[in-house]
Write a structure and sequence with these properties.
Blueprint (H helix, E strand, L loop, with lengths): L2 H8 L7 H9 L4 H21 L10 E19 L5 E17 L8 E7 L4
Antiparallel strand pairs: 1-2, 2-3
Helix pairs in contact: 2-3
Length: 121
């Protein structure tokens, strides 16, 4: 999955409440990319809940504070072409970094989740 295409999905949920972000991802135009981002967002919410065990998720007004997509490694393959040639195929991967935080300032820790997508679709 190329980072450029993943950024199109990620840009839609930056700075949005997590409930609204999950809803946006559910009805995204790019469901395959949205599936990976949704899984990462749910993991970030669970990590926030683990760190802040005394607070409820519904009452804390969680939002996507920061989300970034960086290019990972590229696997280079050859596909056969006419007349004995070979065309190069680049199978790209990316690294997604997500920070979920509460809009209420209580001095608690911020949950930071990072997921490396190494899908070769």
């Amino acid at each position: 999955m190329s980072p450029r295409k993943m950024r199109l999905v990620v840009d839609q949920i930056r700075g949005v409440n997590v409930d609204k972000a999950l809803n946006i991802l559910q009805f995204s135009q790019r469901p395959l990319y949205a599936q990976y981002v949704s899984k990462l967002l749910r993991s970030g919410i669970a990590n926030w809940a683990q760190i802040n065990d005394g607070r409820r998720i519904e009452e804390s007004d969680l939002f996507v504070k920061s989300i970034m997509v960086d290019a990972g490694f590229t696997i280079k393959r050859l596909r056969t072409a006419p007349q004995g040639r070979g065309n190069r195929i680049s199978k790209r991967s990316n690294h997604i970094t997500l920070i979920v935080d509460s809009r209420q300032d209580t001095g608690k820790a911020v949950s930071e989740e990072s997921l490396t997508e190494d899908t070769n679709a």
